[in-house]
Amino acid sequence: MSAVVNDIDRLVHFLKNVKLFAELSPESLAKLGSCLKTAEFPPSEVIVREGAPGVSMYIVKSGLVEVRKKDPTTGIDFLVAQLSEGAAVGEMSLLTGKPRSATVTTVQPTVVFTLTRADFRNLLTQHPEISLGLARILAERLEDATKQVGIEYVNLFKGKFDPRVVGLLPQQLCILHKVVPIAYVNNSVTLAMVNPSNLVAFDDVRRYIKGAIIEPQVCTEEDFKKFMDTVYPDLMGLSSDKKESDKKKEEDREKRRDDRRRHSHEFQMQSLEELQNEILSGLEVQQDEEDKTNATDLATASEDAPIVRLANNILALAIKKGASDIHIEPQENGVLLRLRIDGVLYVENRLSKKIQLPLASRFKILSRLDISERRLPQDGRISIKIEDRSIDFRVSTVPAKFGEKIVMRILDKSGSLLPLDKIIVHMPTVEKLRWMIAQPYGIIYVTGPTGSGKTTTLYSSLNEINSPEINISTAEDPIEYDLGGLCQVQTHKDIGLDFARILRAFLRQDPDVILVGETRDQETAKISVEAALTGHLVFTTLHTNDAPASFTRLEEMGIEPFLMANSTIGIIAQRLARRLCQHCKVPADVDDTTLGYFGYTKENAPVFYRGEGCDKCNHTGKKGRVGIYELLVMNDDLKRAVARGAKTDELRALATANGMKSLKEYAMYLMAEGLTSVDEVLSNLVVGAEP
Fold it and tell me: For residue 301, is pLDDT > 60?
């Protein structure tokens, strides 16, 4: 009995800390608690979906949720807020009966209390004190919100309005956003609004009333409709025929708008051209005044609705085309938009120079960067959701000659990881790698230049051994994939949280497997080797040209040769080459010099291929990418050679004798299979001295 009483007391104490119920008595809270049901949600689970009916409210008992609102033009879900223990979700929708205005998704395992509409109505009927308490709390919240933003209530039928002021906005815009300009004094326009939180309305109003300060006042939806049906036509001198004509035009316009929204995922470059023209038609920035633009001006310009849509469309277009990077590069007479697709940069569009500052400011606002700072490099991040995919953009700005260059690396954290036999097409190589990752301890190095697919290989390897029985911890910069069951930690240089510090912490966390995003310095390299020698399986990356050269790089970092020999399981070197489109590949002629480099003659050479180009590959002849791998597996001979400090050439010869297929040999296999072309291989491999 005492346990039940304690549970009730704890629940009452919890509800007392919920702002919505803070003023209710303990007796009322106990009655309320008896109606609550508990629900558990795993990470990335949708609790409330935007547009769904409001049939319940939720109170976060434990965990973390994020609130996202969809951009109606692009379909991108932008993060609005994160809510934790004690936060209430969906109470306004429960009271009004209107559809949900945002989507609520769990970030961590989350437990919530649920209160249904039926239980809510029963409470109001059976316990009047709860009804009074809730009404008082909601009134106080509304009053506080009104005070905070300075919003007053206006009665549209108790004032005389100037037709010239009311006519500052087109009728269709007033109806769309349910707003009416009612006063204009000292460059300040008073706007009667049904929803003063409608930021899109502010964006659109600024397009028509440029430079004015907007002071919102709230009116009821019923008053607004009645005003537009009765007072507005008389005020503006609209006849009944004109009203019918305007109504039909508005219906047609709304229908076209709905059609655009339904097809908003089809982002053609024509839409960017239209947005650019719309921006330029309302932008009056002279070339010699750009340096005088202050932070406030930039913020206002970057909130203009076409600029917002242009920025959103650029992000969505890059995602749709499968780009890995977005480059926005100011030129002397314009702005170059380039996308990196399958490792190659393509010019996507050339934008007007006048768009440069507001577009850069818009991306900096999304990245939470300082829009007034244009002299120093800055780094930030944009987090969005589109079509249920969580996507991060790692944003970097650099002050260049003609303005700030912005580069955004696209990280699709929700992308599904392929098994090793799907990313590596040579099965003997797959079997060797699977043997390496099955070892109980030791270190596995993955080497290659930036953008060669090292992270994908590492995570696909971790995905194969991931299980509830294994404790896997990763230190990354940044976290590029979300993989369930892992402890993932991101470095933060500003607070001194680097790879070495995270590694030392991991060793006190009872790890089985450790991933280090990159071995950059001596301290990280030494801790990684020590972890491998003390019973842990360690994965990490290096920047070297091939697998045998990794030992020289480690020696330069100050790692003793005998430690390398005893800790290393194997080394993977890799590159990424563009994959030939299998729909349009045709045999290709190869000159004698190139054949000689690969050890072929005209008589014994296999058939080589090239891509002609077709609709499937956007007439490039290439579609997707394929990995080129070199796998060095340690054996006794290699361990002895490494321990005595053997040179790279000797190690390469021993590895080849042990069955290692070099990068060039693996590339020859891919060419013979028709998976890539000769020019791709030659552009990705370092040509050595050997033929």
Answer: no
Give the confidence band of 691 by pLDDT, cuts at 50, 70, 90: very low
505 CB-contact burial (10 Å; exposed 0-12 / middle 13-18 / buried 19+):
middle
Residue (of 356, 374, 382, 357) closest to 299 by Cα position: 357
Helix-helix angle 269-281:305-320, to 10 degrees: 160
Asked if residue 72 has a cis previous peptide bond (ω within 30° of 0), the answer is: no
Q: How far apart are CA 290 and CA 340, in angstroms?
A: 29
What is the chain's length?
A: 691
Provide CB contacts within 8 A for 83, sequence distance 6+. 60, 64, 65, 66, 67, 89, 104
Beta bridge partners of 382: 393
Beta bridge partners of 643: none
Q: Quick one: which of 141, 203, 204 has its CA closest to 169?
A: 204
Give the residue ranges of DSSP H helices in 17-116: 26-35, 91-96
Average pLDDT, the chain: 81
CA separation for the pair 445, 572 (Å, rounded)? 6
Most confident of 320-324, 434-438, 585-589: 434-438
What is the DSSP code (8-state) at residue 227?
Answer: I
Closest CA to 433 of 572, 320, 545, 242: 572
CA distances from 308 to 207, 355, 368 (A): 12, 12, 15
Nearest residue to 48 via CA among 126, 10, 102, 98: 102
- Taking the C-alpha atoms of residue 480 and residue 489, their distance in angstroms, rounded to an integer, is 11
pTM: 0.58
By three-state DSSP, how is residue 665 classified? helix
Per DSSP, helices labelled H in 17-112 are 26-35, 91-96
- Supply the pLDDT for residue 271: 59
Exposed e or buried b per residue across 256-289, where buried means at least 16 C-beta atoms within 10 angstroms of its C-beta: eeeeeeeebeebeeebbeebbebbeeebebeeee
Write out pLDDT tens, residues 490-532. Answer: 888 878 888 889 999 999 999 999 999 889 889 999 999 999 9
- Roughly what angle, to the nearest 10 degrees, separates helices 648-657 and 636-643? 170
Q: Which residue matches tokens 């409330």?
A: 48
Structure tokens at 461: 């390897």
Per-residue tokens: 241: 């025929």
Per-residue pLDDT band at 584 (split at 50, 70, 90)? very high
Q: Please give the Cα distance from 414 to 345 (Å, whole number).
A: 24
CB 668 within 8 A of CB 594: no
CA–CA gap between residue 423 and residue 594 (Å, rounded): 27
Looking from the CA of 601 toward its CB, the CA atoms found within 13 Å total 2
Helices 427-437 and 454-465 meet at what angle, rounded to 10? 60
List phi, psi (to 5°) of 190: -90, 125
Asked whether residue 299 carries a pLDDT value surpassing 60, the answer given is no
3-state secondary structure of 530: helix
CA distances from 195 to 44, 51, 166, 189, 211 (A): 30, 17, 18, 16, 22
